[in-house]
Amino acid sequence: MSGATTTPAAEKRTRVTENGPAGEQPEGLRARLAGSPVLRLVGRRLMIVIPLLFVVSALVFLLMEALPGDPAQIRAGMDASEEEVEAVRQQMGLDRPGHERYLSWLGGALTGDLGSSVVSGRAVTTLLGERLPVTLQMAGMAFVLSIVISLPLALAAARRPGGLVDRFVMVCSMTLLAVPNFVMALLLVLVFAVGLGMLPAIGFVPLAEGVWPNMRSMILPVLSLAVPMACFYARFLRGDLVEQLNAAAYIDTARSKGTGPWRILWLHAFRNSSFGLLTLVGLNIGALVGGTVIIERIFAMPGMGTLMLEGVMSSDVAVVQTCVFIFAAAAVFANLLVDVMYAVLDPRVRYGSH
Amino acid sequence: MRSGARLATMSGMLNATREPAATSNGAAGPILVVDDLRVTFSRHGRVVHAVNGLSYQVRPGRTLAIIGESGSGKSVSVRALMGLLPPSAHIEGSARLDGTELVGLDDKSWRAVRGCQIAMVFQDPASSLNPTMSIGAQLIEAIRMHAPLKRREAAQKAIDLLKLVRLPSPEKRLKQFPHQLSGGMRQRVVIAIALSSDPKLLIADEATTALDVTTQAQIMELLVDIQERLGMAVIMISHDLSLAACYAHEVLVMYAGKAVEHAETRNLFSNVRMPYTKALLDAIPQLSTPAHLQPAIVGGHPPDLSALPEGCAFLPRCPSSTEQCRIEPHLAEHEPEHAYACWHPVSRDGSCTGQKEERP
Amino acid sequence: MAVTSPPGSATLSPAPLAGSATRWSSFRRRLTIWISGSVVALLVITCYLGPFVLPIPSPVGGNVLDSGLSPGSPGHPLGTDVNGNDVLSRLIHGGRSSLTVGVVVNIIGLAIGGTVGAISAYLGGRADSIIMRALDVLIAFPSLVLVIVLAQILGPSLPNTILALSAFSIPAVARISRAATLKVMSMPYLQAAELSGSPWWRILSRHVVPNIVPQLTTFAMLGMAIVVVTEGALSFLGLGIPPPRPSWGNMIFEAQQSMSATPLLVLWPSIALLVTVLSFNLLGESIRDEVTGR
């Protein structure tokens, strides 16, 4: 890989590959599956990820215990008498010890019952059904857009390091990278909604009401999320590409074949740089998820982020718990996916490196 | 172990020297004419003179070995022939390949020359293949770069090439990746890539330095064999004199970016005239001479290429230097077929004593 | 191997020439360090000494009758906000909050995270894997999500903001410190030191720490930018530094509500945030390049 510092994920990866189980070899299809390094890697990573998710859920539960506000009081209403609150508490099972409540929550979660909102009384699963698609659409579009913007910019910049395009891309990306996404959102609103009146400043139109209105309501939030990320990726990728071009011997081999500069960039250098980018993108999923929280808030998008924030403000334990857990699980699974893609894309991992 | 193998090679060095190529080849005009090639780099405001007026010719079917220490400019001089130097390099002089001037070519014309007319084999087979592309993809890319072949035809040619470089089970190799091959096998693949378009000139830049000694010999034998079959010209860059002695028709010794001695291999090794070449030869350990009796290795440091002294660049390290050496000696054929640049050449009887005793 | 090159000879191979920086680019990098460093110094001086030296009014307790004054009004060079408070004064005091949070969080992160990472790598084995698993759990949380929940648990205040932000700074620094330590530990000179029987504290203090500190300090520069932004986000959401105490984040939030009427009120703190983040990023990146010699 590149000479960049070892990323945590890469480091984890090597650690994982070291203690590979060399168990007995079953026959037939099972043998082939067991023999596939990719599947073995997925298996090994799952062995880490699943316990990790349990610990994460326990930690979330502990955090919720510490959240200010008494759920029973909230459910019963502020003017309820002490007896009424106590009755609600018993009804909600809040008088039971913590570990018992955790286990029953866990049992419910595994069977698809995530409890109900203390504030609205609606089932958390119903809320998720409404909110998750909005966030998924926004984060997914921002993710794709950031990659689509950054790749051509990085390749164009790396074509002539120090050249005009390179300097322009580097200066612009450095500046835009310094704009936090919530500031970016406000600036975009100022220009496109307040100033030019081209796009709605806030609000979300579901896909059911038409593709174009839905897209219009998505443009600004998605841009606010995607632009800083794209700058980050473009800078990283450009740096890695230039390093490959300058230092890697296989680039000389490719050049001495008579291969053209773009083909060298795209086919040779980029293939090798893509692993570093992949790791970075995986690590950045957490930042993307965090970003959706604040961007949804600014644009009043009815997604997971606003759901969580509303829950946090109103001490709606069941809601916050689920949201935080889903956010964490999304980041964990994103990294798992990166590891798998790594294995699929990198022949050194795919075929084992002996 | 390593030096043992080297000594074995050295003892048979001179009788293994390659005879001049067949007359039919010898009569052909030079394929490459390098004339007063100069390469400078600007670095931190200093100008580094990496190559200082290098001239030589290579004829088809012949092998020229360019020998020198690290930093003597040998590698830079051939990378200039491939257009592989970074943009900070400034190249002057002339290098004509089959009549085409290489100095000052634009990017587009370079692509027609590279791979097609000149090919290169690099030092480290571990890193000179793209780790993310299969052997087949890299080979086919090279084949299709210069020939309008269909993918299947190119794949067939790739297999033929791998057979040519004697890689076992070539069909299987196409789907494999570089990390699945050993160093020697990788170097064979790199050679196959270099040969993909029948180059007129093959440059081997320290092509065997990173390999162990047995593999080294196999790869060199392969190169010689292929050269004899295809009749191309070869330039081999090395700092290993024994390798040059075994496999080259003529040897050019470089010091501080200049040629200091240039002759037929047999001529040069039996009659070393330049004190620097002699020092290099003396630096090779000999079994016949006990270690404490062996002559001192070359003292001093290679010169600073950004501040070369007036006169002979070897002057500060030369045992036989005089005032006259402050005037630069020029490379000239002081003897038939033997050019050197020195005012005080090593006398005939003083040269290569160790070598002569070894001869049967 | 080097039969032909004398021992101790200084080699000048073409490889470093190819990838090396020219004089111009190294000059430009130094210039970047100087300029961004000066901006950072200027920010620090203005925010910490400004309130005592500059003739600016109090950032709080403004008269509502003075609200919405435009920039250039007498006594209010950048005008006033909706509450009649002087914008310049609030910017400077807000900057003080942001920088204080940034510095303290990074010091906590470096001290705790740096030590934990280095010790974890040095101990290796079981202890290392337990520590790393624990950090994995913390890192699994998207930072802003964790910080939001912690901030709500702790309640909005400056010290609590610092605590909440440290929760993501510590594991991040620990990972970097661990990776850097592992790299040093694999170096031959360290193995030589271990073989020659140097005590562990000597190895840590003589070999490990001096080698990881440059990497950690450059990370701290980039970390400053991250923490300042996250603090801004937190205060923007009303979970960070509580009004009326100014912070760039809560200034942006307040200004957002009257954005169409007075867009400048959004721009001032945004620009302050941008300049701060940009100069810390530039400083961090150019110092890193300088250290690694790229």
Automatic annotation (TrEMBL), chain C:
Name the record gives this protein: ABC transporter permease
Family label: Belongs to the binding-protein-dependent transport system permease family.
Chain ranges passing through the membrane: 31-54, 99-123, 135-154, 160-177, 216-241, 261-284
Pfam families: BPD_transp_1
SUPFAM superfamilies: MetI-like
Ranges where the ABC transmembrane type-1 domain occurs: 95-284
Source superkingdom: Bacteria
Primary subcellular site in the record, as a coarse category: membrane
Topology relative to the membrane: Multi-pass membrane protein
Keywords: Cell membrane, Membrane, Transmembrane, Transmembrane helix, Transport
